[in-house]
UniProtKB/TrEMBL annotation:
This is lytic cellulose monooxygenase (C4-dehydrogenating). Its cofactor is Cu(2+). One of its GO terms (biological process) is cellulose catabolic process. Its main location: secreted. It comes from Echria macrotheca.
């Protein structure tokens, strides 16, 4: 017994390190649109991922990050080995997509960003897009409201706003966005090691959307078309020495330059004060895209999945 005890202590210490690190990571649990829940992809071993998930799959067993070493590679688009899915979540221009993360650690402060890219040259919507060719337009910068708040450094970041809403974030799908298939790229950047070159941690989540016309046109006129003209490829989003990427967040900051392009005109991100949790009332029915039409995605759910979901 006495000989085992130190080993048990060691095991406990190792386990606690393991859990500290695994808690330090996250992925996409699901999204909610107007009360309907659509499944994400969980990269951790042993997780059952439903075939009708709208989140891209990744080869990322620790649900970890993409670093600046990959800013010039397509890996930064939709996470490591990001692979699209045939399933798209239907949404109307002007609606909100509520993105539910699988947790977020308080000690990973940073901005939360969202981008959209149209899938134009495919017949299955975003199902077979080339992620390196997608052109991303920024629609949410998470706002610079954190500077000069009490409690810092590191102060109150978008990631803390996200944690306060059960690790979730609401994204406004731009009014005037042309109907069609899009990839939503939602991303948190953790800056706790960002003082060191290459130390920032990007967590991009890619989600396929099928954007439809609003139910009714707004009262009193038409909505201006939302322009995607400034879209850039993923490899052009960030540089390892951007001021918002290579930064010591544990010193008092008077300014912070959110990395990446500027938010497109007319995007209307959801303000901090309007961020809120969302609860689903039903499972959503994703769609497959066939040219300009869609068909409901009827997933075969195995007994194991049913068991797993309770
Ligand atoms: C960069 O991408 C490669 C290929 O997926 C991966 O093995 C590596 O861990 C990534 N490194 C970082 C820092 O993102
Ligand atoms: C909070 O998020 C988790 C997923 O991380 C989810 O399982 C849970 O249902 C959420 N709670 C509420 C009240 O939405
Ligand atoms: C924060 O405080 C500094 C110094 O007082 C000031 O220059 C800066 O404009 C403030 N930033 C914001 C966002 O209020
Ligand atoms: Cu982490």
């Amino acid at each position: 017994m006495t000989r085992i005890t130190p080993l048990l202590h060691l095991a406990a210490a190792l386990l606690s390190i393991f859990f500290t690190f695994s808690a330090a990571h996250s992925n996409l649990a699901y999204i909610i649109i107007d009360g309907s829940l659509y499944h994400g992809f969980d990269p951790r071993p042993g997780q059952i991922n439903r075939p009708d998930r709208v989140g891209w799959s990744t080869a990322n067993p620790d649900a970890g990050f993409v670093g600046p070493a990959n800013y010039s590679t397509p890996e930064i688009a939709c996470h490591l080995s990001g692979t699209s899915t045939p399933a798209h979540a239907p949404v109307r221009a002007g609606e909100r997509v509520h993105v539910q993360w699988n947790g977020w650690p308080y000690g990973h402060p940073g901005p939360v960003l969202s981008y959209i890219a149209p899938c134009e040259r495919t017949t299955d919507g975003c199902g077979s897009v080339d992620k390196a060719e997608l052109r991303w337009t920024k629609i949410d910068n998470s706002g610079p409201g954190f500077i000069n708040e009490t409690g810092g450094p590191p102060g109150r970041w978008s990631s803390h706003v996200m944690i306060a809403q059960n690790n979730s974030w609401s994204v406004h799908v731009p009014d005037g966005l042309k109907p069609g298939p899009y990839v939503l790229r939602h991303e948190a950047i953790a800056l706790h090691f960002a003082k060191n070159r290459g130390g920032a941690q990007n967590y991009p989540l890619c989600i396929n959307l099928w954007v439809e016309e609003p139910v009714s046109p707004p009262t009193g006129g038409t909505v201006a078309p939302f322009s995607l003209a400034g879209g850039v490829r993923a490899m052009e989003l960030y540089k390892e020495d951007d001021p918002g990427i290579l930064i010591d967040v544990f010193q008092t900051l008077t300014t912070y330059v959110v990395p990446g392009p500027t938010v497109a005109a007319g995007a209307m991100p959801v303000a901090y004060s309007m961020q809120a949790q969302s609860v689903s009332s039903r499972d959503g029915v994703p769609v497959r895209v066939q040219g300009t039409k869609t068909v409901p995605f009827v997933a075969k759910i195995t007994a194991a999945e049913r068991e797993f979901r309770g």
